[in-house]
Write a structure and sequence with these properties.
With about 250 residues, the protein is an alpha/beta fold. Helix content is about 35%, strand content about 25%. The chain has one domain: P-loop containing nucleotide triphosphate hydrolases (Rossmann fold).
């Protein structure tokens, strides 16, 4: 089933002859259960594209459909509810509240929605068990490792069972060991929990955990590669070759 659909999406900045085409006619689909990466050099449009999909930016033209809902037609005062009900977010700087426990951080959106406390406890316990962080639920973010914080962020993104999870450079603030742990967690979320994930990354290793990679250049899709039956090492090398062809940064090989 199709979760995300973009049709001729454009996002321009400026006026008259001084126009920057940050996103210039991009179209693609993501089906339920896919794990897709977007790559490109700085200024290629990948961040702007993610901002449009997450309803942070308003497209200049084109269409974005998430779960059958045309989001460019949603009223501004209804966007927060749409994000809450349909989107999960994972950021590179965790965005955890230091004054709340890991358990409370995961449950925050449910608490805000005033769900029954028993239901909240069951949902948090279930997702924490699946992601291997049950033993740190009573701790505060400053008491746990970077990798554990990111697993907490993953649990928080999953707790509302969103249509799609948007990950913006999720390994950017992590060391090599924690990065690999996070990527394995995202892979687990995708394969075992059937989460649909769209990840923006500059890192070739991160992209190699995905099943499909879209490469952007000058606001357009330059190319697309699919993992298929390739090993992760073979797919990693193909990503490196494509980035070299693209003329962008191949990222850190970890």
């Amino acid at each position: 089933m199709e979760v995300l659909k973009l049709q001729n999406l454009k996002k321009y900045y400026g006026i008259n002859t001084n126009i920057t085409k940050a996103v210039d006619g991009i179209s693609f689909n993501i089906d339920e259960g896919e794990f897709v990466a977007i790559m490109g050099a700085s200024g290629s449009g990948k961040t702007t594209l993610l901002n449009c999909i997450s309803t942070i930016d308003i497209p200049t033209s084109g269409f974005i459909t998430i779960g059958g809902i045309e989001i460019t037609k949603i009223k501004e005062d209804e966007l927060a509810d749409f994000r809450k009900d349909n989107l999960g977010f994972i950021f590179q700087d965790f965005n955890l509240l230091d004054t709340m426990t890991i358990e409370e951080n995961i449950a925050l959106s449910l608490i805000v929605n005033k769900e029954d406390i028993k239901d909240i406890d069951k949902k948090v316990e279930s997702i924490a068990a699946r992601l291997g962080i049950s033993d740190i639920l009573k701790k505060f973010p400053y008491e746990v490792s970077g990798g554990q914080k990111q697993r907490c962020a993953c649990a928080r993104a999953l707790i509302n069972n969103p249509k799609i999870i948007l990950a913006d450079e999720p390994t950017g603030a992590l060391d090599s060991k924690s990065s690999r742990m996070l990527l394995e967690t995202l892979e687990q979320m995708n394969k075992e929990l059937k989460a649909t994930i769209l990840m923006v990354t500059h890192d070739s290793l991160s992209a190699s955990f995905c099943e499909r990679v879209l490469f952007l250049k000058d606001g357009k899709i330059f190319n697309e590669i699919v993992k298929g039956e390739k090993t992760r090492k073979e797919f990693f090398n193909e990503i490196i070759d494509m980035l070299t062809l693209l003329g962008g940064d191949v990222g850190n090989v970890r």
